[in-house]
Amino acid sequence: MTDSSKTINLRSYTDQIPFARHLGFQITKFEAGESEIEFTARPEHLNTFEVTHGGVCMTLLDVAQAAAARSETPEIGVVTIEMKTSFMAPAVGPLIVRGKLLHRTATMAFTEARIYDAQERVCSHATGTFKYVKRRLPTGPASANEMRPPSTD
Question: What pTM was computed for the model?
C-alpha cells in the first residue's frame, strides 16, 4: 500500500465513525490485519477516579478490533457480534490501542486488542467476533435527517 493510499484509507475510516471522531481517536495504522489508535482522554472522558472511563476504553477496543478486521478489505463493513473485555490497570495519560485480526472466514473475523499506557503497560484487553457485511447507507435517526430535503420555509 502506498503512503498516499494509506492516508486516504485512514482518513476515510475515521470519517465514517462519528462517535470515534467525537471522542478524538487518531487512527495511525490500518493495514495487513492490524490497527493502531492514539487517544488522550479529556476531563469529560474520565470517571470519578480521574482515569479514562471504562466505556471509552471499550469503545477504543471495539474500534481497534473492527479496524483490524476491515484493514484487508476496507470496502466491506463489520458489525460487532460479541466482545469480552478485561480491565487490568487504570488507563491514565496518552494511550495507544493495538488491534489484530487473529482469524478470518468469509463472513466472520476473530480479533483482539490491547490498550497500553505511555509506559507500554497493558491497561485493558479484549477479544471480539465481528460479522462482515456489505456497506450500505446509514439507517439511524441522524441519517434520516440528512436525507430529508431542505425546508422551503
Answer: 0.83
